[in-house]
Amino acid sequence: MQRVADDNGWDVTIADVTEDYTTIGIWGPNARENLQKVVDDPDALSVENFPFAAIREITIAGKTVSAFRISYVGEQGWELHMRYEDGLAVWDALREIGVIAVGVETYANSRRLEKSLRLQNADLHTQYNLFEADLARPKVKAAEFRGKEKHVAYRAREAQPAMLCTLVMTDNIDKDGVARFPVGNLPVMHPETGETLMDELGRRSYTTSIAYGPSIGKNIALAYLPKEYCEEGRKLEVSYFDEVYPVEVVGIGYAPLYDPENLKPRS
């Protein structure tokens, strides 16, 4: 950001506030009910008063909190942003009503993959564009921005060379009869040739993210596939520790496998 400001001759001061603020995420089917137990004004958290993607100031344990109704785990909930020194009081208030602290795996992988949510630096890379990631807006804003020329060129394509797809492992049992739950970047291969898929630009297909989805009971992966393989039901393979496992394409682009509002997996 400082380089951009300097390049444009802007009078901008950028300050590192990493240690000035902290954030607590409260998510899940009972997030609203639980948060209402600790805020000064429970009615302020109603659906009517606090719509999705809204930001409101609330008070917890006498501390002012900027609550952002957003979620990265496929469930309702809030990000609670506050001054660093106020964090412990808010944390204690939530723990006292039984809110459970869980690890980053839920936030960063298992639940967000069930919801088909992308992760920066995992699923989002500069070698793929926003259309291939299925994150492009319907329109291009009139104002200039860095990369606009390329973005417009990508938009004009009749079809993108690849698309970010959702895959599920249809069998995760290894040669010794042990169920495997892979992590990392696995090559995506043609089931007949065993060759790693490659699109017309020479980009090889691999799992950008993979984790076990507890709501659907399967390993879920995101991977960019060449356009000719972007079809639901397509059977492919992945390799993990030199063993091959079958996978199936179950979604092209943004395709949630689990809808928490209906509390059931997608059929």
Quick overview:
The chain has 267 residues and is an alpha+beta fold.
Describe the fold and architecture.
This protein has 267 residues and is of the alpha+beta class. Helix content is 15%, strand content 27%. The protein has five helices and twelve strands. It has helices spanning 2-7, 31-36, 87-96, 104-114, 148-155, and strands at 21-27, 55-60, 63-68, 77-83, 162-169, 188-189, 207-213, 218-226, 235-240, 243-252, 258-259, 264-265. The strands form three sheets. It has a six-stranded antiparallel β-sheet, with helices on one face. Strands 1-4-3-2 form a four-stranded antiparallel β-sheet. A hairpin with an 8-residue loop joins β3 and β4. The chain is globular. The mean pLDDT is 93.
Mean pLDDT: 93
Looking at the structure, the CATH topology of the largest domain is Elongation Factor Tu (Ef-tu), domain 3
Task: Compute the number of helices.
Answer: 5
Percent in helix: 10-25%
- What would CATH call the architecture of the largest domain? Beta Barrel
Number of domains: 2
Cα Rg: 22 Å
Number of strands: 12
Order of helices and strands: HEHEEEHHHEEEEEEEE
Q: What percent of residues are in strands?
A: 25-35%
Query: Uncertain runs with pLDDT below 50, 5 residues or more?
Result: none
Structural class of the helix and strand makeup? alpha+beta
Strand order of the largest sheet: 6-9-10-5-8-7
What does the main sheet amount to? 6 strands, antiparallel
End-to-end CA span: 44 Å
CATH class of the largest domain: Mainly Beta
